[in-house]
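input
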Amino acid sequence: MSTSLKKIDRAQLESSIQEAVDQTPLIDIHTHLFPPEHTSYFQAGLDSILTYHYLSSEFLSSSGFSPKLYRSFTRQQQAERIWTHLFEERSPLSEACQGVVTILTQLGLPINGQNYEFLQRQFRDRMNSTSSYMNDVFRLAGVEWVSMTNNPFDNDEWSLFNKTTWDKKHFRPSIRLDDVFLTSQPVNSALKKKKRTDKGLMEYLSKTTSSVQPLYFALSATWDQLHALKRDKFFCTSLLPFLAERQIPLALMLGVKRQVNPLYGLGGDGLVGDDLRVLEDLLSQYAENKFLITTLSRSSQYPLLVLAKNFQNMRIFGFWWFLNIPSIIRETLTMRLELLGSSFIGQHSDARVLEHLIYKWIHFKKILKDVLIEHYAKLCQVNWPLTREGIRQDVYNILRGNAEKWLNINSKEQKR
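output
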């Protein structure tokens, strides 16, 4: 047996898992990030971190502050209010608040007893060189590259691809289809100009696909909207065959209920009840298509795993939105390993602010290590021949390899 395949014992197990998790270069297959060259959409820095909608909604609900007055503030004024209320007047116990603490700590900023003005100055000093700062963030998160969320029907957002130079090393495209199926009158869009004719729309999507080589197409929807999609002629007879022919996955993010409280803006979205029967029908009827699936409620996680065992044309990915809290991640990761082994895509950050990459991946990797130790320890107890190489391959698959395979990364690399 070669050195790399040498069997390890229980005493070496924890360090082997730690090493495998820490040394795997991550890919983040779903974010809302954009490169700094797309200046209107690039978000980074203290004000963006503190006014993220998770924190805004926590602030409004806990403080009783007027949402209308809050919206009238500048972003800097909002950020200062949030810092004072959530970090100075009380302990930062929520996952969103602890995420901020992790970001500040990893960036090496002194946070004990510091006020907003001090931290703002520290950030400005660190961000003098945007490219250098961005590289630092990716390094601290352990992330090699991320997938953007790109709306080809918003001319301003899509204008990124009209630029001759932007950071293609760290940012890769995906195509978002919400404007096609889930909004009736998109503003400032290519879709409006085409008046939603199936032929014109398919020609446009084919052209954009050839142009940008997206990793996948994506939709976020309620279960009722997914029912409607199954009855949509364009979706069933044009889009799905197009994706199947090109082996481009369709990512479905299911279970969000938009604007439960419109006063909270993005933070006012909520949950809607589960109906996995419609997903089961979709997977069965379109077996040639590849689907990436994530759902928003805790109650849907176990039945979703059962579907994943029964259909080879779907992959579960990550912990979306309200599920991205340690207690649920730990519970669900355990179920996924127990039912699927390592055949799922571990995580995506859903980051809207650059620095979110740091805390979301650091927090997830800590939980992953703990859960894997529990599972591998059972194999050690029965003297299963575990090796560092075997553990490294399992971890690679969870953190990267499964996503690379499902997204045809190797073939796309050859075309880049």
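quick obs: DSSP finds 20 helices and ten strands in the chain.
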